[in-house]
Amino acid sequence: MDTIASLFSFITTPVSWVIVQFHSVYGKVFGPDTGWAWGLSIVSLVILIRICLIPLFVKQIKATRAMQTLQPEMKKIQERYKNDKQRQSEEMMKLYKESGTNPLSSCLPILAQSPFFFALYHVLNGIASNTTIGVINDSLLASAQKAHIFGAPLAAKFTDGSSKVEALGATLTDVRVVTAIMIVMMSASQFYTQRQLMTKNVDTTVKTPFMQQQKMLMYVFPVMFAIFGINFPVGVLVYWLTTNVWTMGQQMYVIRNNPTPGSKAQAAYLERLTKHVTHHEKTRSRGERAIVKAIVSKGRDRNEFERKFINSLTKVGLVAQADGTVAKGESTAVETEDGTPTTATPRRQQPKRQTKAQRQSAAAKAADDSAENAPDDADEPKTSLSKSDEPEDAKPATAAKKPAPKPAGGTRSKAQSGQRKGPQRPKSPSKK
Asked: Of 88, 148, 278, 347, which has the fewest CB atoms closer than 10 Å, so is most exposed?
């Protein structure tokens, strides 16, 4: 390990300088020789490094998403060339090249942290061996050796003997209890981070060997941390525990606000987004607009959760726009499971069946209304003695409709007297 750490000796000076600067700040608050001053200096170093690695973390997310998108194609290649491993590898590399995806991009944050990790290990190992390193001089070295975290010196290890631990001003029991608790917390945080990634943020619609590998790593990494953790100084355990907690919180934020398409996290996110959008009738943030824009751009390639989101907006009269906003609309088109849009026509409601008394009252009321709307001359009673220019059977009824217009060809109506089309007025009884 000393040989590996010496390879990163070029970065030990910057790392030790950063720790000393943070120690000068915390030393004024907690005291220069306390474990809080040195421990918080290491925690601040981790936070500073992780902030600088955020661009790499974003690149890691994009690479992971691209790999998940390629899973169906990778599965086809594996099935097609399952008996020819060399051809299978060639086709995989060709697929990576065409899509511009690099499988190693998901490992960038870990690889970028490695120099800082080994440099910090080298610095703490120098403190344990009473050796000045970087910008840590003799006075800072003596102060660091006096610093204890819950009774365990920063440079002590789980495997150290009692004589070495006593030389650092501690007991073997305190060192092993503190280191054991920190190793368990470090392994548990690593396991939980990987588990929430596998259970919530993985596309469940695609089953590939890549998912099995990730599931295996969920158990392998915590065991590796537990095995190697007994050889790490307390200061290095503080470093790894802090970076694991940071990774866990960062992963939870990404899963909640930018989930993987097709995952359970996306279903939960779109359900929350539906409630927010339908309540406010707009997308409130840039992240929400980016999600809606991506869903609209997919078209018929949307998954079941995305189609459910679009249909939920349609039902309340909202339409997702191409720029990620939503607007009120009258579109009633919904998408089926295969992504085909259909028009949701409202079902025709059948009128309630009326009773005989209701039908008779309605007919009487209609007759009264027609009588009121009749012309004035129709109200005058007529007798059989009154003369008329037209035959009685040729006169139109009062409540009859107007005759239809004559055909354009000028043909006469074939209706004869007594055979008129439509309803006819009954003849008035003659008085004798």
From this structure: 347
Residue 196 CB contacts under 8 Å (≥ 6 apart), including other chains: 248, 251, 252, 255
d(CA 145, CA 234): 12
> CA nearest 232: which of 45, 25, 44, 42?
42
Per-residue model confidence as pLDDT tens digits over 407-423: 444 444 444 444 555 55
Structure tokens at 421: 């089309």
Q: Which of 3-12, 119-128, 229-238, 341-350 has the lowest mean pLDDT?
A: 341-350
Phi first, then psi, for residue 342 (nearest 5°) are -130, 155
Three-state DSSP state, 319: strand
Query: For residues 244 and 253, what is the distance between their CA atoms, to the nearest angstrom?
Result: 14
Cα(147)–Cα(73) distance, rounded to whole angstroms?
55
Torsion angle, alpha carbons of 277, 282, 287, 288, to 10 = 30
CB 232 within 8 A of CB 240: yes
Q: CA 128: distance to chain centroid?
A: 47
